[in-house]
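Re: that backbone. Tokens:
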């Protein structure tokens, strides 16, 4: 049976990058709520029209829309969830959804970084318009400028990676994270990782912590 993991962290903490690496390592899909929402916006669907305004302001999209979208994407087998849950109410909904499928989460990985790192990472971030692959002008540049290595799609700057919106997203993260972390640490499911390191080091740390045997009581 596949690994079921959640990645929690500020925007720019490396959730997407680590989710991609974990997805390859465990052979289970990465489910990125941000990517799902951006697709809804691009396709101009009804939820997409509502979602767009929230995303542009750096606010969280209402839970009702999020929970409906995620239910369709999670089948209870393995997954690496990136960007969901983002608050306590979403965490509870996810547990309910998994219980209904006789499943549970293996672990929740909290990637810890400070605001300075977030600004540095997001201001150099580029994303493939076509496949969502992530790049950074300095630390993860593409082989050819502005072209995705994987699918040759065009690399763009996300609308919400502007400095004012980054700050708002950071505030939203700070407001919500405590409830989320308390919830998962009480259930003994939380792994905390310092994420201000290069991506391979963070990845190795995550894997080593996931392999540690559970604490005995
Ligand atoms: P991300 O790509 O994970 O940084 O998400 C980009 C934006 O999508 C966020 O700033 C929110 O506006 C929205 N979003 C993503 N995931 C969620 C979620 N779980 N709940 C509410 N809004 C979300």
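Recovered sequence:
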């Amino acid at each position: 049976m596949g690994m079921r993991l959640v990645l929690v962290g500020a925007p720019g903490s490396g959730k997407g990058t680590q989710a991609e690496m974990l997805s390859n390592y465990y052979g289970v899909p990465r489910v990125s709520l941000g990517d799902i929402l951006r697709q809804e916006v691009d396709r101009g669907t009804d939820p997409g029209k509502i979602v767009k305004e929230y995303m542009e302001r750096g606010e969280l999209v209402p839970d009702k829309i999020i929970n409906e979208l995620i239910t369709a994407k999670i089948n209870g087998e393995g997954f690496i969830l990136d960007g969901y849950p983002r608050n306590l109410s979403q965490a509870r909904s996810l547990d309910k959804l998994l219980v209904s499928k006789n499943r549970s989460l293996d672990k929740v990985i909290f990637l810890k970084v400070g605001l300075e790192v977030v600004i540095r990472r997001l201001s150099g971030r580029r994303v493939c318009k076509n496949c969502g692959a992530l790049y950074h002008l300095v630390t993860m540049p593409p082989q050819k400028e502005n072209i995705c290595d994987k699918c040759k799609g065009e690399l763009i700057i996300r609308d919400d990676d502007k400095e004012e919106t980054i700050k708002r997203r950071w505030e939203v993260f700070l407001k919500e994270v405590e409830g989320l972390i308390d919830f998962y640490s009480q259930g003994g499911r939380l792994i905390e990782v310092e994420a201000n390191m290069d991506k391979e080091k963070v990845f190795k740390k995550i894997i080593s912590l996931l392999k540690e045997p559970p604490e005995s009581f």
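DSSP finds eight helices and eight strands in the chain. Residues 87 and 176 are 5 Å apart (CA to CA).
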